[in-house]
Specification:
This protein is α+β, with helices and mostly antiparallel strands and about 350 residues long. The protein contains ten helices and 14 strands.
Length: about 350
């Protein structure tokens, strides 16, 4: 079989980014439009990216749990489920979202043009749940003034952190994405002395160097978001950006985290919002409020190109889930045969055959 090609999850950082979250409207026509776009996305990228070969235009298309069942049926990724809200000292909300388009480039006009073409193709098939235009802020700082993403893995370490392996062989090369929009109380944050800000983050504000353990509190952001199991640090790939509207007084960070298992990011969020131990929560949340929260599965680029426009039936899990039970909580689905892409419906193999 030809090699399976992942989507550009570990692509290098770019100065411009757009994150577009949509919901799929009811009816077979909407599903057909979405499935048709899956196969056409690579062509759109080539056509628009050709205008500036140095522009590094890329797009990741990912799907929520309910949308996966409606669009592709069984089998489904082992760990795909709806985003689980967290209630602790602060609240990590769960919000609607069937498809994520995470678009990145060196120039915002490339991102904007691709998003325009995507939405033109989808038309009435989808409704927009959220749209964020992100930008690079000076030397990769967030709007709180700290350098962001300094601990991101690179090269093979990034691949190992983000891409599924043999633990879910039918979906190897895929990934999970959790996205959250955080709004910052900059007036309140800027009133906090820099030394205290540094202890909240766990880094020096100017240099970005990590504080010594002797002075860094256990509630520091970079302490609570470091996850270890069996003596090994479980990393994720962060691809968030600052955003804002000055006239509205809206300033924030759009968090996008990719990982081979959503458990890694979910544990980070549990530590932040509930605390480790409970009550020892992330003080950054006193100034940054999560207003969205959605979990997506990122299939491979090979998967997308092989999706047929014909609508697939609901998965067995979706059809048999009892009332009030999500498809992710129903009976687990059998794994795809060895060597299968686990697509469920390919251009050469319609669903149900």
């Amino acid at each position: 079989m030809p090699p399976t090609i992942p989507q550009p999850i570990v692509a290098p950082h770019t100065p411009a980014a757009m994150s577009l979250v949509v919901t799929v409207n009811a009816g077979p026509a909407a599903q057909t439009a979405v499935r048709a776009l899956c196969g056409d996305l690579a062509g759109l990228l080539r056509a628009i990216g050709f205008r500036d070969l140095e522009g590094r235009l890329s797009c990741i298309m990912a799907f929520g749990s309910d949308a996966w069942d409606r669009l592709f049926g069984a089998p489904r990724p082992k760990e795909l489920h709806p985003f689980r809200e967290i209630r602790g000292q602060h609240h990590a909300v769960a919000t609607p979202g069937d498809i994520l388009f995470h678009i990145r480039a060196m120039r915002m006009d490339l991102c904007f043009e691709l998003a325009t073409q995507i939405m033109s193709r989808l038309g009435a098939a989808v409704s927009t749940a959220d749209e964020v235009h992100g930008f690079q802020y000076f030397d990769d700082r967030d709007l709180l003034g700290f350098v962001d993403g300094m601990e991101n893995p690179v090269d093979q370490a990034a691949v190992d952190a983000a891409l599924i392996g043999e633990e879910d062989a039918a979906f190897a090369g895929g990934s999970y994405a959790i996205v959250q929009k955080y709004l910052h109380d900059l007036k309140g944050w800027n009133a906090v002395p820099v030394e205290q800000q540094e202890k909240i983050i766990g880094r020096a504000k100017l240099s970005g160097i990590e504080l010594d353990d002797a002075v860094k509190p256990t509630s520091a952001h970079n302490v609570l978001t470091t996850i270890e199991e069996g003596g090994e640090e479980l990393q994720i790939v962060r691809a968030g950006t600052p955003f804002g509207e000055v006239g509205k007084g809206e300033f924030g960070t759009y968090f996008v985290g990719y990982a081979r298992s959503p458990h890694r990011i979910e544990q980070m969020l549990e530590n932040m919002f509930v605390g480790k131990p409970p009550g020892n929560y992330d003080r950054l949340l006193d100034f940054s409020r999560a207003v969205t929260g959605t979990l997506f599965f990122v299939p491979t680029a090979t998967f997308l190109e092989d999706v047929a426009p014909e609508a697939a039936g609901p998965s067995t899990a979706s059809a048999t889930a009892t009332k009030g039970e999500s498809a992710a909580e129903a009976e687990p689905q059998p794994s795809a045969p060895a060597g299968s892409l686990g697509i469920g419906s390919l251009k050469k193999e319609p669903a149900g055959e």
